[in-house]
Specification:
single chain; about 100 residues; mainly alpha
Amino acid sequence: MINTNDPKQPLEIPLHDTTWDLDRKEGSYVNELKATHTEPLSEPLLEVPDDLGRNVAVTSVDALVNWGRKSAVWPLSFGLACCAFEMMASAMSRFDLSRFGME
């Protein structure tokens, strides 16, 4: 909807007015699913071979990246300018050896 006084400015319509019908439909669908699908999923959900049972970890990408940053030690790095050290430090772990002068 366009404002007639200034065609470049759209009219401010509250979000709840524009999404109310969709919210109600979605809410009723979720409640219907909760009421009709009460049985748990059958086990196992994933077929994992026995030799891989203790070698697979399920995690988020964010947790994996943070683990890598926490465990990173960068004593050997390469950069062509002094700004390379600043860029490396932004991607390194929080407590790196070079920050304590232990290289």
